[in-house]
Amino acid sequence: MDRETAALLERASALRRAGHVDEAIAAYQKLLEREPELPDSWYNLGFLQRQARQYEAALVSYGEALARNVRDPEEVHLNRAVILSDHLARHDGAQAELEAALKLRPDYVQALLNLGNLHEDRGNREAAEAAYRRALTIAPEDALALSRLAGVIEPRSEAAKEIIESVKSAIPGERDPSGRADLGFALGRLLDGRAEYDEAFEAYEAANRASRESFPGYDREAQERFVERSIAAFPEPAVGRSPAGSIFILGMFRSGSTLVEQILAGHSRMVSGGELDLIPALVPGISPYPEAVAAADGATMERWRRFYLDGLAPFMREGSLVTDKRPDNFLHIGLIKTLFPDAKIVHTRRNRLDNLLSLYFLHLGPGMPYALDLADAAHWYAEYERLMGNWKALYPGDIFDLDYDALVAEPEPLIRQLLDFLGLPQEDGLLDFHEREGAVKTASVWQVRERLHSRSNGRWRNYEAALTQALGNAFGG
């Protein structure tokens, strides 16, 4: 390597280590124009492009790394699979990449876990179970593999008995709090499915305690301040015309948003986008948020708008709308309506106690620390209601409240009303969502593979004593 090439490599590497993503991308591109036979540099460029949401470019760069015999090619195939599955909705391609990784390295546990997860997303329970069992054969102590396996086993099956005992035995020896949490939530699910409610709640309590060891605590005062600032930042409804190209489905997590999206996905003019992170990705670059939204000039607004629409592009079909089913977008309706004054919003809601319990029973990420404690979740719920009340007052004609309990009890009238609200023609077959193929990348992946049912309605009654103790005066149906 000559001196100038070495200097270019050092500059690109330094920018990457410093976290200057855009500058590092430009530096690697300049380096590789001069010296293309650098597989590690192609890999680093792909990694940076993925960070910058340049997904197609990242696939190309990773491909160049593979063509030049990069070290650990199975890792490159795994990275390509994540891009294809999570960001470009090309699930066949993702599966092919994972299978290529496993052909190179049959004992690659991470690829097996991703393959199992992909099979879950696509509704193939048997294939998912096989992938997780294979992972456990390779790594018998892997808590995530065991918890994932427990997550696809039917709770009342004979196989569940053995899995329950395996999970119970694994929890005390698992040192990683996240691993204990994974196992605890999986155990709670199986016990709940077997109507062993007291033991299930104990498992969920232990799982949430373990999660609290890893996650930052929920700051109630900070959430209250954010809601107050959001209400103050958007005192008047947005004006103008700018359709979003999407239908926003939002509300509390676990409030029925996946079900609504899957029903709408059966319409000839709708495409399912899933839980897109486009609006949340915009927010960190707006400072101070939300006050700076109103102060932004036209060019800035157009840049934000273009960022969102570019992110929708992989899902768009001519003449169709995309569902953006990110529940916590309710925090950002002010931004959404500023960018897209014509945007239509479907607000899903359900019985408060069922909703709180469902949150508590799910292993959510560090961005949702409120879910790790029932009293904190009740506080978050109250702030959510306060903020949604403000948005509905500002945009009464653009927000459609859809109650989960009413939907499962008598779906057809509500669906007709929803289609009228969205300006879509009435179509038959929307309730056949359980028969459709396609990936579902949410915690409700298995629920939406079943016919519409009301088994989750009133679930809180199985845990009434525990809810009373946890919520105290805040308890109430």
Care to describe what's here?
- The mean pLDDT is 92.
- The chain has a domain at 237-474: Rossmann fold (3-Layer(aba) Sandwich), CATH 3.40.50.
- It is globular.
- The chain has helices at 3-18, 21-34, 39-51, 55-67, 73-86, 91-104, 109-121, 125-138, 143-152, 158-170, 177-193, 197-214, 220-233, 257-265, 278-282, 291-295, 298-312, 333-339, 352-360, 374-394, 404-409, 411-422, 464-471; strands spanning 246-251, 270-272, 321-324, 344-349, 399-403.
- With 477 residues, the chain is mainly alpha-helical.
- The protein has a five-stranded parallel beta sheet with strand order 2-3-1-4-5, with helices on both faces.
- It has 23 helices and five strands.
- Helix 4 runs antiparallel to helix 5 and helix 9 (143-152) runs antiparallel to helix 10 (158-170).
